[in-house]
Amino acid sequence: MGVAHSDLHNDLSSSSCFGDWNILKPGLGDLPEACVAIIVENLDPVEICRFSKLNRAFRGASWADCVWESKLPQNYRDVLEKILGGFPENLQKRHLYAFLSRINSFDDATKVRSSHTLSLSVSSFSRFICIDDRRYWSHIPTDESRFSSVAYLQQIWWFEVDGEIDFPFPVGTYSIFFRLQLGRSGKWFGRRVCNTEQVHGWDIKPVRFQLWTEDGQYSSSQCMLTERGNWIHYHAGDFVVRESNRSSTKIKFSMTQIDCTHTKGGLSLDSVVVYPSSCKDQLKRF
């Protein structure tokens, strides 16, 4: 009888769907998929994709809508409707996250990326940005802009650029920047060059940046434009999006230098960008 009991124990030890694993010792493969989903819900998207390679339970949980729902912005439905013109009801939350993680355009001159945080870029030639007099501006093709072109100011007395954005920003604090360069970029025998011969007038009086929101927020700052040959993000101001019944937030912004005692020129304007304020320190000079 003792021999029979020993044989039975050996059979149980060797017969396992996990090869040499002991059937009496449960492993990760024995966890219910619902429990695995609770675990991976606390991971970031990259870790979720890595853990999906462990076994079937983790792979199945990595596709669960409840897992990716927490990774999407709170108002992702409004954002998708703005970009696509409607909400795609047939897509899983993982597909929605992947779509929002890419750079998307909801018109020819506005690009947005909105996975867990939102960033938005508006081209200088967008219908949302008004340049005071386009007779003094040129359309310059360049590979230094994600829009493949920038606006170049030759010379002007009254300098004013303003615009307006109406977008369903998620709740949070955001910063607006103008991406500018003193000089005109180009190529010379395949190497980047920047012509600064026409740059003048920006070191006499400061440029003023302003920001308004429809709920009464206002921000103003000014600075001298002195550095030549590099793309710089000039901070225009911050605004806060709070919980409200509004599905969209309207922001107005401007950049002016209206001292008509002198001319100014040689300025390249690429775009206006909106970033979460927590990420503004990550903006680098180009």
Automatic annotation (TrEMBL):
Domain of life (superkingdom): Eukaryota
SUPFAM superfamilies to which the protein is assigned, alphabetical: F-box domain
CDD domains linked to this entry: F-box_AtSKIP3-like
SMART domains: FBOX
Residues annotated as signal peptide: none
Domain F-box as annotated: residue spans: 31-71
Annotated protein name in UniProt: (thale cress) hypothetical protein
